[in-house]
């Protein structure tokens, strides 16, 4: 109900005497006193409600202050180009794992989702931020994916995984300084499963590609190049580069084709659609177990290919992995 003070119109009062006029002023005085009393009560109630609201708002963090949004955006890699001055960079092997951020309290994915690691895995990590890769060696991405994204940690599986550190988002200075800070912390922690990704200077492009061939022969992913003078700046730039012998891309799973021959009764290939709308089948890169339980419809998969056909279809496409949802 809205409270308003309405004066009794003078025209409604009986006329003809001073007494009548006095009566009109007296009645309206009573109306005004009652209205003012009600207004004061409502104001007091609203003031108390506002104070409670303010108290609650300051007692609990808002969504904008959630732990996910306090995590810095990560540095993203661009593709290597021939005109890059390699002497300005350090190289390291590109690990086939899951990128992880240590917030100082917990491990999270690069999207800010929690990673449920066992207590023993994180108990000695300091209250400062690190960035790294959860890795179980070359060719073991599926082990890492199944283990790291499980809400209930499996101790036996986690013991096969290392946290390979490569950056400190909050550390001041260029990458060389941040890298040496990581080395010092790893040495001080002296924990078997917490390590660092070794970075070394690059003298020539010939040396760089020789290292790439060596890593590829060992079934490695490729190389990462970090500009030594760069400060930590989120986003994609030439401060961080990736170099591979093969091209990788992602596509959406939209269908299946049944297998024939030895794959009869199993999935033969998956039908995918790229971000550009190109549709094609991927039939290689799957184990027998994967063909029984193929990537789900609507999921995003990573595939490897070598160039394009005249119609823009990736050539020699082969399945690598299903992208985690978290």
UniProtKB/TrEMBL annotation:
What biological processes does GO assign it?
A: DNA repair; DNA replication
- DNA ligase OB-like domain mapped to chain residues: 259-323
Q: What GO terms are given for molecular function?
A: DNA ligase activity
Provide this UniProt record's keywords sorted from A to Z.
Answer: DNA damage, DNA repair, DNA replication, Ligase
Pfam families noted in UniProt = DNA_ligase_OB_2
InterPro entries attached to this UniProt entry: DNA_ligase_ATP-dep_CS, DNA_ligase_OB, NA-bd_OB-fold, NAD_dep_DNA_ligaseB
Q: Does the keyword Coiled coil apply?
A: no
Q: Does the keyword DNA damage apply?
A: yes
Q: What NCBIfam families does this protein map onto?
A: PRK09125.1
Q: PANTHER family from the entry?
A: DNA LIGASE, DNA LIGASE B
* Record's protein name: DNA ligase
Q: Which organism is it from?
A: Vibrio genomosp. F6 str. FF-238
